[in-house]
């Protein structure tokens, strides 16, 4: 694999490292009362990394087995229409998510505050609820992690051997949790000094989490519509084709 490709994958992984599950929840855990317990944080982050690693391998294997068939179908008229329709659905979903977020904010915090309450309750119990929390968060957001999905496509196109593919995927998932691990280390060695930084990151992520998610979904929808329309020569030609079907 070329160094430039590895660098690109690294940038994608760093983008994924700032998501709700990979950074915001760990920061909430670090801001809990008292000094952080490294073992519990490692249970959470290890579960997140393991989940993304296994899902990435499954998606890569599926893409490798059916890639030729999928590509041939996507090059047909029906495949292009399906892509465009899926994109339109994602854009509608993005608007719905944004509207729901604004309604939740007006109601006093909404989903993020409920998630924070769940994190705090998990922090006070055994390690098992933290692992369950990690799985829940990653399952919810995995489909919206556009850099992660792009990275899987890049790895699949690189036609790596199974061992090297697994190694690159493992490295990608480790980079995803690296910022949270760095913050954990800083919190352990400079507990009070690093708290203002954690509070600032928490405030920024809390403000932007809903916007970010809806923007990612909307951008993905736009890219799918554009890809589907290109098959017909443009959006107007796609609409003409759809009118002809009706």
What does this structure look like?
With 246 residues, the chain is mainly α. The protein has one domain. The chain is 86% helix and 0% strand. α3 packs across α7 and α3 runs antiparallel to α8. The model has no long low-confidence stretch (mean pLDDT 82). InterPro entries: Gap/Sap. This is GAP family protein. Pfam families: SfLAP.
Structural class: mainly alpha
Provide the gyration radius in Å.
20 Å
Bin the strand percentage: under 5%
* Domain unit count: 1
Number of strands: 0
Q: What percent of residues adopt helix (DSSP H or I)?
A: over 70%
Number of helices: 10
Mean pLDDT: 82
End-to-end Cα distance, whole Å, is: 47 Å
Describe the sheet with the most strands.
Answer: none
